[in-house]
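Hi L., both proteins are below.
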Amino acid sequence: MIAGINSASVSGWLKDNVEDLQAPFEFTLIAGGHSNLTFRVKDAKGRAIVLRRPPLGHVLESAHDMGREHKIISALARSGVPVAPALGLCKDAAVNDAPFYLMDFVGGAVLHDREAALKMTADERMALGLHVVDVLAHLHGLDPNRVGLGDLGRKEAYLARQINRWTKQWVASKTHEIPEMETVGELLAKRMPEQVGAAIVHGDYRLGNMMALPGRINAVLDWELCTLGDPLADFGYLLNSWILPEDGTSDVVPTAAGGFPDRDVLTSRYAKATGRDLSQINYYRAFSHWRLAAIGQGVYKRYLVGAMGENRGMDLETYKQSVTLRAVAALQLLEG
């Protein structure tokens, strides 16, 4: 028995609802924790597919909607945005204690850290970085109505809605005072730029959420935060994740391997591809740090009170400090 999978009932559902699969099935956890759980499913013929389900334990009421993720990757299948092909959706929570969906297993590597990125050559890393920004620009250029995602969410007032949502999340999950969180929230509301158009916003667009081949993205993954809204929030988030060796930080992020285009190159390329004004991009970068701090505080509190089960080696004090560091970084961007 593997946590998160009811092997017997899920196997029965797979046989009845997904073509060309042969029992018995082998389930292996690929990624898990406080985000959605991802499992590799291997059938008797050796075919591999992927199953996604919500995390175990308490989660936000509106988060981890499997039907939403399935709808998004299905809609984007012919859009030019690389996604894994959707194979099926199970809405019946009785099958596996929660809804889940299936997608094809797509080749490539997830670049979680510097060591993973170093398996590519410098030229391949440079080409991959350019493709990352090109795919984002293409995503933001899609008409949500034409690809079938026009009803994914409200198009207008994205920042106002997000600031309201994550302010409430911060208040609900606060365990200690972080003055910078309060200050940044106030400044973000006060200095909010006017939204120019609406786009499909991924919400977590970074190398760690992609299947990468040498020089290009094979599939963009983890669409659980996707909505409609201000595309510059996506781009600001990408820039924050794009930490290069000269930034003097840890080796945790893949771009610390070097060889990737720098932020100026990404910014110029995105602006040219989209025609968007990026003069206030530091606002969006600050918003991204602040939002992640609010999300991180929610995760920290769930682990602190035991709602996520065992810590699984998680250093709670370091995680607590990371929330403060995010808030401080956001304030520096707004004051710079």
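That was the first. Here is the second:
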Amino acid sequence: MHRVSPVFLLAALVVGICHADDLPRSTPEAQGIAAADLVALVDALDAHGDAASADGVHSVMLVRHGHVVAEGWWAPYTAAHRHQLYSLSKSFTATAVGIAAAEGRLSADDTVLGFFPDEAPAEPSANLRAMRVTDLLRMATGQQTEPPRKEGTGWIRQFLAHPVPFKPGTHFLYNTAATYMQSAVVQKATGLTLLDYLGPRLFAPLAIEGATWEESPEGISTGGFGLSIRTGDIASFGQLLLDRGQWRGRQLVPAEWIDAATSRQVANGSNPDSDWDQGYGYQFWRCRHGAFRGDGAFGQFCVVLPQEDAVVAITAGTRDMQGILTILWRHLLPALRAAPLPPDDAGNARLRERLAALAVPRPGAGAPPAALVGKTFRFPDNAAGIESLRLEPTRGEGDAAAHLVLASAGGEQRIPLGTDRFVASSVAWGGKPPEPAAVALGREGEECVVRICFVETPYVTTLRLRPDGTGVRLSGGTNVGFSPTKFPDLVGTSTTE
């Protein structure tokens, strides 16, 4: 379940700003970067991934010396869209712990069991009794496997019941349940969810509006995932980290906490070429080249480069997260000069044009095969829950060139399709409630292709329809996922002649 804090509803009424973030803008040259170098960076990011499945980057924002010097969104993603952060949420959770510690609500040295006596096992082990909040922060709880989060049992109780075979602080294990426990600790200590606690203390000062955070069945912000904010909000958070917790003359987070959180607190590998083996802080990863970052599944990044006084915010839907970081090291690092450069109006015009042209790959041009238009195709029982579909010509409704009428157990939905653009819509898929989406239609060979961008998530679904006798063969998949991304082929039978 998602929640929106009331503080954001009020802020949306009283705060008037030009951008979704509160950062000033500048030409790249004024901040020591050539526009041509940023064009090359954007080209590399645009080429990253797989166009056939729409695996790729969704947005990028670069901040140098406190100024945004480049920002772009791959249409239909926009600056106004929130984006699921997945594990980048963890860095915000740790920041909440730091603020609560500064307010005297808790200490990083507090034992975890001390907050939850009612959920503790009858005979807690010595290692569980020794586990501290700082062990949660460092992903060094002493657990060998991540505790489950099963329905019907509280997540706190499941965490505390899980074996702790190692002495806390000695064994790194990437552990989303440990981040949930940090959220639970903050809520226990303050009486507020993470979303409500961070609202006036972090989000409102940074002009982060409309944030949502999923909650557990216990009514606790999920902590390790579930936060959705805009690209500009990620950039503002990165600038706060770069400035050691200070924002517009206010110390929002203690500098000492930021220093500790972004330093190497525990070893997590030894591969010098991997940005996942450089050490782990308090819910932050150390990177090569003296950088650190928060990150989330499928390419949600807040990368901070203290030596270069720079921040990079990225959202994406990609399988290759290391590839994105490698692009930054290859193209961005050499472009960051110590002194301003001469103005370059022509170069900046090219950069603006390049950023404005970014787009998720649309299907090829062309009308769908006539055999697929105006007919209803019914499908046997399937895991996707699709009962029937029909392609209808447009009735002059807005920008839609056609409609996909899709029936499932959740009912029938009529989805507008654009041929030369993505058309905004709301789409229910995979048994989930309707989500904001943008949809395009095209043709590739004998296939009709429908691409659905779920614009507040990393996910892009591609459906391929091919005539199959008097029926239709449906195939496709998603760009990314935690389970297989290719859909099993389905054959539908025409019921309309």
